[in-house]
Design goal:
Blueprint: H1 2-18, E1 28-31, H2 42-56, E2 64-69, E3 76-82, H3 88-105, E4 112-115, E5 119-124, E6 139-142, H4 150-169, E7 177-184, E8 187-195, H5 201-212, E9 226-229, E10 233-238, H6 265-299, H7 303-311, E11 317-318, H8 321-327, E12 336-339, E13 343-349, E14 355-361, H9 366-379, E15 390-396, E16 399-405, H10 412-416, H11 427-447, E17 451-453, E18 462-464, E19 470-472, E20 479-481, E21 485-487, E22 492-494, H12 500-505, E23 507-509, H13 510-526, H14 537-546, H15 563-576, H16 587-595, E24 635-637
Parallel strand pairs: 11-15, 22-24
Antiparallel strand pairs: 1-4, 2-3, 3-5, 4-5, 6-9, 7-8, 8-10, 9-10, 12-13, 13-14, 14-16, 15-16, 17-20, 18-19, 21-23
Helix pairs in contact: 2-3, 4-5, 11-13, 11-16, 13-15
Main location: membrane
Keywords: ATP-binding, Glycoprotein, Kinase, Membrane, Nucleotide-binding, Phosphoprotein, Receptor, Repeat, Serine/threonine-protein kinase, Signal, Transferase, Transmembrane, Transmembrane helix
GO cellular component, one term: membrane
Length: about 650
């Protein structure tokens, strides 16, 4: 299907370029042949609902609409994006007009897209939210005239586009847009760039960079203007103003030059002294403020957070402490399941016979308060078969308890790395576990109401239910973002599963979880911890892949199974652990690669080479570029135990 769609888009692009001089700049549409519907079908009814709802939505004022209606094959996913410099009324008018035109031009196609000068509308029966489309379909409108001095024109255009690309990509979840100008001799170049805001920063930048390549190809190099469009991003530049100047992003301001040569040491000295004193006072006030916050946080949990936890979900139960104490037999050692940074986990049984797992915050654990609130507020909003379900909480006095569903088969590492139990995990079960974890990640990254980065994905945080179905657990370190990339000075997780950009710089994204998932795939295939190999699991896997002996990685008990599927999983695992963030696949791509053997896999590039030394311990890791973080705030595990952990039996 993907190959036929690519061929279809390519043919349309070739035809478009042949007849480009006869086309108007006003509008272009594309009807895909990947699926059709009838005029009286449920799909058409859902499509009408989606398009009408977007253009009439008065609650959205930022020009980006996304909506899904229906189920299964009748589900319609739609996106509309208006140019960032137009008003709300003009935006809705454009979305309405383009939607109606698209229905007329593509009367029975399940996937279509239309570009107007002020907006873009697209819909499909497949998931399109947060998905970076390939460079196809991509259309260009270039001006027939060339610049008089192509080299000088390009030297001004390139920095302008690069500056606007960075501003656009760094936008938030409601707006990824930038416009600006740059002077070139006697004329000025005006440019406007935008991405659909559902993309993360990396995908937006990648899309714009690919789109910008058209500007410097033989067909378009040196043209005085043009527009380069794709479903995920849009780029246009002209030698005349074509957007509202109020929407411009000004270039970095330069300090005015100093007039005259006369120096005034006394004034300079005064300025330096005043700035130094002001800076010192600022530091002192920040320290005092920080200490006050720390003291208050040790004394009590913020009352507003309590209220938010209490009201977060209708079906979320607030248990009283007495009920949980009875259920766990007063938190007896017999019912103890495990222990982590948050506290101890106990098995319990309610009066109605329902078995539960109870995570109890250790007294005096400041970090536990943060993890408690984080996990409650996140998990209460999540419902997926591959995520551990939280049933409720207890917030009474100094007691902080989290109540989970009880899963009888403990965590994945209890089976995977146990010489006796690992024989229960045949290849079929291992592949099912890999697919289940991937679907759970996809829900966190793309399909839930919030984009969530787990940040501590590993075998001990994958619980197995009675049917050996995987459930991602331990969300104490997870982060909720309005985009898929963030940065932190407080690095928390487990060495061996951290990607280099997180361990070194504190940068995390959906691709961070993809890296951890790749390590997990290789562990599941090999049946060994990532630290079990002298040179590290990733280096061992890469060496054998390069030498054409990847089966050396496979656990001996699996050799009688489908080696084709096993090799494909190793291939996918190596794609996930590539050192460069941009080279790693998205979570959506990973799920597709696992579920369909017809999808061709890219050639993986090498992962970060990790070495384990006696000084760092088996769970600390270093790369050829000093992988081990020097940040004093790094709180990474040295024994595979993260902040919070539970081991149900």
């Amino acid at each position: 299907m993907c190959c036929s769609r690519l061929l279809f888009f390519t043919c349309l692009i070739l035809i478009f370029h042949l007849f480009a001089p006869t086309l108007a700049l006003d509008t272009i549409h594309l009807c895909s042949d990947e699926g059709n519907y009838t005029s009286n079908s449920t799909y058409r009814a859902n499509l009408n609902t989606v398009l009408a709802s977007m253009s009439s939505n008065t609650n959205i004022s930022y020009g980006f609409y996304n909506l899904s209606v229906g189920e299964d094959s009748n589900k319609v996913n739609a996106i509309a994006l208006c140019r960032g410099d137009i008003g709300t009324d003009e935006c809705r008018t454009c979305v309405s007009a383009s939607s109606q035109e698209l229905l007329q031009e593509c009367p029975d196609q399940k996937e279509a897209i239309i570009w107007y000068p002020e907006c873009m509308v697209r819909y499909s029966n497949r998931s399109i939210y947060g998905v970076l489309e390939a460079v196809y379909p991509e259309y260009t409108f270039e001006k027939p005239r060339n610049a008089s001095d192509v080299g000088a024109f390009t030297r001004v255009l390139v920095p302008l586009l690069e500056r606007l690309e960075n501003i656009t990509a760094a936008g938030n979840s409601t707006r990824k847009f930038a416009a600006g100008r740059a002077a070139q001799d006697t004329q000025t170049i005006y440019a406007l760039l935008m991405c659909t805001p559902d993309l993360d920063e990396l995908d937006c930048k990648s899309c714009l960079e690919q789109t910008r390549e058209w500007v410097f190809r033989p067909c378009c190099y040196g043209k005085l203007g043009g527009r380069y469009m794709s479903p995920s991003c849009d780029l246009r530049y002209e030698t005349y103003p074509f957007y509202d100047s109020k929407a411009e992003t000004p270039p970095p301001s330069l300090l005015p030059p100093t007039e005259g040569k006369e120096s005034k040491p006394s004034r300079t000295t005064i300025v330096i002294i005043v700035l130094t004193i002001g800076f010192a006072l600022l530091i002192v006030s920040n320290i005092v403020f920080y200490l006050r916050v720390r003291i208050r946080s040790r004394q009590k949990v913020n009352s507003e957070a309590k209220q938010e936890i209490s009201n977060v979900h209708e079906s979320f139960i607030r248990y009283d402490f007495g009920t949980i104490r009875v259920a766990t037999d007063n938190f007896s050692e017999v019912n103890k399941l495990g222990e982590g940074g948050f506290g101890v986990v106990y098995k319990g049984k309610l009066q109605n016979g329902l078995e539960i797992a109870v995570k109890r915050l250790s007294m005096g654990s400041l970090q536990g308060n943060i993890e408690f609130e984080n996990e409650v507020l996140l998990l209460a909003r999540l419902q997926h078969r591959n995520l551990l379900s939280i049933m409720g909480f207890c917030l009474e006095g100094n007691e902080r308890l989290l109540i989970y569903e009880f899963v009888p088969n403990a965590s994945l590492d209890h089976f995977l790395f146990d010489p006796i139990k690992q024989v229960q995990l045949n290849w079929e079960k291992r592949h099912t576990i890999i697919e289940g974890i991937a679907r759970g990640l996809l829900y966190l990254h793309e399909d839930s109401r919030h984009r969530i980065i787990h940040r501590d994905l590993k075998a001990s945080n994958i619980l197995l239910d009675a049917y050996m179905n995987p459930k991602i657990s331990d969300f104490g370190t997870a982060r909720l973002l309005d985009r898929t990339e963030g940065n932190t000075m407080r690095i928390i997780g487990t060495y061996g599963y951290m990607p280099p950009e997180y361990a070194q710089c504190g940068t995390f994204s959906t691709k961070s979880d993809v890296f951890s998932f790749g390590v997990l795939i290789l562990e599941i295939v090999s049946g060994h911890k990532n630290s079990s190999f002298p040179e590290g699991l990733l280096s061992y896997a890469w060496k054998n892949w390069r030498q054409g002996t990847p089966l050396n990685l496979v656990h001996p008990t699996l050799m009688a199974n489908s080696t084709t599927q096993i090799l494909r999983c190793i291939h996918i695992g190596l794609l996930c652990v590539q050192e460069n963030v941009n080279d790693r696949p998205t979570t959506t791509s990973v799920v597709l690669m696992l579920s369909s053997e017809s999808i061709t896999l890219a050639v993986p590039k090498r992962p970060p080479f990790l070495m384990y030394t006696s000084s760092t311990g088996p769970d600390h890791m270093l790369s050829r570029r000093s992988y081990q973080s020097r940040n004093n705030n790094v709180q990474a595990s040295v024994n595979d135990v993260s902040i919070t952990e539970q081991y149900p039996r």
